[in-house]
Amino acid sequence: MDNNTEEQLNPYRASFRKALRTALRRAVKKHEKLTASIEDCAKAEFYLECGEIIKANLALIKRGQKVASLPDMYNPGCEREIKLDENLKPLDNARKYFKKQRKLQKGEETIREQLEICEKEIAELEEIQNGYSAWEEESDPSLPPPPEFVDGARRHNILIAGLEPPKSPQQQKNELPRGVREFTSHDDIKILVGKNARDNDYLSMRVARGNDWWFHVAHVQGSHVVARSTINHKGNEPLPQETLLDAAHLAAYFSKARKATRVDVHYCQAKNIRKSRKAPPGQVTITNAGNINVRIEEDRLKRLLKGFAGDD
To answer: How far apart are CA 169 and CA 62, in angstroms?
Structure first.
């Protein structure tokens, strides 16, 4: 392998090796943080003792004290200095310590579960890394990482561009076509937006299902917008109000009326859209349509467009 030039090496080998190292390094760092958190949880016992000491000595504490030196039942003959909230009654200070103790105790259980998962992940990543290193030493350098290592890495969310698994027919069917943008409404409903006239045709006539809801700004050039129907609103049942407004806002934003403060938006179900053979790209005919006059809300647009980097 030493005599091979860089050009003979499969380009995915180095990427895969680096991804494994990075994932293992992150897992080890996470383990260190979880271990440190477990040590912090040891304070739970201290908080419990403070609460019990306060509770046993309520008569010795006056409201407004910031610190109290109280007989320590856990160390007979000694006193323990305990910080207090001067705005709370003595008993409420005890309850505050008990609450801290319960929170840390509950947190420790969760952290220990995470720690166990993390340790298992580290062991599996090390096994994959060691096996892959041994394979690299003995294999033809032109070969890509074998499926058994790639699949093992994928189980730990290690994804390398070019080494993705083949898509199933269902995944290919559900995949958005090029030229269609996807957003999510306030009600967690998918809203699809075309990029240009031909994309609009494809979205409206091929992607949209009959019960989906279709939107377009009235009398202005713009994108076709489709809000997906869900189990919760079939047939002629209207969309949730927030999704209706979200889809109308996207129709306005992706149109020539983007800078307007009020916009009329037509909407109907996709089954009421028709396109004649002679119609130019992006031009359709709709029936049973409704109209909504939208006052543009900047906060709503900001939420919908969060993470949207613009078109390529």
So the answer is: 73
Answer yes or no: do 43 and 187 share one domain: no
Structural domain that includes position 62: 1-163
Length of the chain: 312
Residues 176 and 159 in one domain: no
**Same domain (yes/no): 72, 114:** yes
**Residue 262 tokens, joined:** 């009020």
Closest CA to 122 of 222, 42, 185, 32: 32
Within a domain: 312:
no
Contact status, residue 20 vs residue 132, Cβ threshold 8 Å: yes
Residue that terminates a domain, selected from 132, 163, 194: 163
**Domain-embedded: residue 240:** yes
Counting the structural domains of the chain, the total is: 2
Instruction: Please list the pLDDT of the chain residue by residue as tens digits (312 residues).
Output: 444 444 477 888 999 999 999 999 999 999 999 998 888 787 888 999 999 999 999 999 998 999 999 999 999 999 999 999 999 999 999 999 999 898 888 888 888 888 999 999 999 999 999 999 999 999 999 999 998 999 899 888 888 877 777 666 665 555 666 678 999 999 889 999 999 999 999 999 988 988 899 999 999 999 999 999 865 444 556 788 999 999 999 999 999 999 999 999 999 999 999 998 889 999 999 999 999 999 999 999 999 998 786 764
Residues 6+ apart with CB under 8 A from 226: 191, 192, 193, 203, 204, 207, 208, 212, 213, 214, 215, 270
Kindly state whether residues 48 and 129 are assigned to the same domain: yes
The verdict on 97 and 153 lying in the same domain is yes
CA distance 304 to 293: 19
